[in-house]
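debug: dumping io for the single-chain case to check the tokenizer round-trip. Nothing else runs in this session.
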Amino acid sequence: MAYYDQRGIQLARAFVEGKLKNQVNTLKYFAKYRKGTNREVYEQIYGGIARMDKFADELKEIKGKCIDDIRAQVMSVEGRVGNIYWEMIKHLTEGKISFPGREHRGAADPFNSLLNYGYGILNQQIEKALVLAGLDIFGGFLHVDRPGKKSLVYDFVEEFRQPVVDRVVIALVNKGSQIGMDGEGLATMTKRDFADKIFERLEHKEKFQGKNFALKTIIQSQARRIATFLRGEARYKPFVIGW
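debug: decoded output
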């Protein structure tokens, strides 16, 4: 029922709002270390953030009767902000690794391979949290439902990509960590070490509702909040990480 009323719109918009704010805060987090060492990169990043904020403001103006009315507009905002985000990531990792731009399935470069592998691990955690909250993982809002497509997983994961995966990948690259590759992508040892770091990150505590909680606990709490929101008992507010 929520798919056909304002709840679907509010939830989809919240997922994207959380993603965009977390992209901005991820850039701010890494930019602060450049302020005194590389002023040019620092200013490039904040110039990008200003452009991202301008596009993100459009979300507030998007209105419709149900999610089908506004999906294209919301995803347009998400896409434009995302393009700037990855452009800024290039500046943050310049000289450390070759980053051709964001590529999904079939990516052959180390940076995208790490991102994709990390997102795969995160998707499993997201799916588990949604199931434990009593939600249908195939019933999405932002992502169109198709047979066998875990649309709600893809919706909900948007809020946590940057806090859980992007920060780990960027930090690894900037520290000059060795990323082993073989003919099939990431080397087995690299996968194992990287997976350990993602699970460590999930145990890392962040500020949430005035207290510190492990990220995996925040994910589970937010999944329950989706269920509460869909029942009409409370509003849904995305998790935004500090910087």
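debug: round-trip ok. The chain has a mean pLDDT of 95.
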